[in-house]
Here is the input.
Amino acid sequence: MVAPNRLQRRFNVRDPNQSWVTDITYIRTHEGWLYLAVVIDLFSR
Here is the structure.
């Protein structure tokens, strides 16, 4: 499922907690798959 693009590439945020972005990726290792999930507040970035 893909979420709608609500930011429309406007990443300049004036205050904290206005826009949070996420990403999930997976990495293959010898032991199996690792999953990495990242959540970032655009204000602090």
Remarks:
- Residues 15-45 form one domain.
- The longest strand covers residues 20-29.
